[in-house]
Amino acid sequence: MKFLKLIALLFIVQQASAQTTIIKKDMIIKNMIDEVSEKNIEASVRKLVSFGTRHTLSDTLSKTSGIGAARNWLKSEFEKYSKESGGRLKVEFDTFVQPADGRRVTKDATLKNVIAILPGTDPTDNRVFIVSGHYDSRASGANDATSAAPGAVDDASGTAVSLELARVMSKQKYNATIIFVAVVGEEQGLYGAAHLAKRAKAEGWNVVAMITNDIVGNTYGGETNLKDNRSVRVFSEGVPVVETKEQGALRISIGAENDGPAREFARYVKEVAERYVDQLDVKMIYRRDRYLRGGDHTAFSQEGFAAVRFTEMNENFDRQHQDVRVEKGREYGDLPDFADYTYIQKVGRMNLAVLANIAKAPAEPLNVGIVTSDLTNNTTLKWEAPKSTKPAGYYILMRETVSPYWEKKIFVTETQVTLPYSKDNYFFGLQSVDAEGHESAIIFPKPMR
């Protein structure tokens, strides 16, 4: 009885204007969020800029300049955090040979992602969550491997987020595994991310979600003169790029074009990040990436993983892929003095809230379906408990078909529930939840007999 009262207390929900919010916060997560340091993030960005250029094909032998010096420094930083975590953080180079492509890779090159793996503590839970930024940079010329390419915002900002998350999060324990990555070769064609995604697929990693932080340090919109230090865009695909013909036919028949795994994860990001981070407005963008553009999450999408991109609200193109110069009194170049480090800190805190909450949560429910054996205005949902740690219960999520966000969360403990709402008029989702309120990824149900 005492346990049921505790559950009832923890699972109080309130209806906001556009988003459901949990009243009770996990104080361990809140304390970790507070620990994310603007000073550390700025120091990491300026250190990466100090290597002159981090072009993928730049010098690999120098200890002070080029891509080689940058990756060695990143590895040493992750290793420092590993020592602070008692050795639980496993650091390695993810090394591969990228053949010349006749376009942006002019010769065969040995490339290295830098990864730090924080294994989950539940041996029955094989979930993996990946967070990345790309540490390579470029100047105006895509193949210019020698000119200064500071890359402060694109993408030392995202790389600094990965570093700071590893520093803070590796001190705590999670059910699932979290992998912090500094990716190479993004500017040459997403090569580092593509290699890691293929490795994850080949080795059978259960990657539930992947986040790339790419261009998350600018708050001034250049030619638009807009200033926005509270909004962060989350790009996600609605229809998985790997969808089969049969899956497409099912999607059309149930109207699920806006409910692919990446889009559900974007909804999760908005709810949890805004729960924990003040003065944050998560903008869900219904595209895989910006107009005609791509990022490292794309490589994971192409391998069938749910992947999203975090990006500042207004990009400043005077700072992006530009030779450092002054023309007619206008300064160009991705220099560190133009980055907003308080904003990058906020993005880091947003990442941490989402990753900590989902990695502490039980695994998602299995075989989730809507029973269609009878025509009825009720909706019956049926599912199975995850095979790892048993949840305290489940949230049934509901929204009207025109709503971008889940509007209702109904806590239940059984694995089959009939609701007095029509599946014709509402969308439904399901997630596992533990006694502390940590929710799993959201599963969109399939029809079942």
TrEMBL record:
<feature type="domain" description="Peptidase M28">
    <location>
        <begin position="113"/>
        <end position="319"/>
    </location>
</feature>
<dbReference type="GO" id="GO:0008235">
    <property type="term" value="F:metalloexopeptidase activity"/>
</dbReference>
<dbReference type="InterPro" id="IPR036116">
    <property type="entry name" value="FN3_sf"/>
</dbReference>
<keyword id="KW-0378">Hydrolase</keyword>
<dbReference type="Pfam" id="PF04389">
    <property type="entry name" value="Peptidase_M28"/>
</dbReference>
<dbReference type="InterPro" id="IPR007484">
    <property type="entry name" value="Peptidase_M28"/>
</dbReference>
<dbReference type="GO" id="GO:0006508">
    <property type="term" value="P:proteolysis"/>
</dbReference>
<dbReference type="InterPro" id="IPR013783">
    <property type="entry name" value="Ig-like_fold"/>
</dbReference>
<keyword id="KW-0964">Secreted</keyword>
<dbReference type="GO" id="GO:0005576">
    <property type="term" value="C:extracellular region"/>
</dbReference>
<dbReference type="InterPro" id="IPR045175">
    <property type="entry name" value="M28_fam"/>
</dbReference>
<keyword id="KW-0732">Signal</keyword>
<protein>
    <submittedName>
        <fullName>M20/M25/M40 family metallo-hydrolase</fullName>
    </submittedName>
</protein>
<feature type="signal peptide">
    <location>
        <begin position="1"/>
        <end position="18"/>
    </location>
</feature>
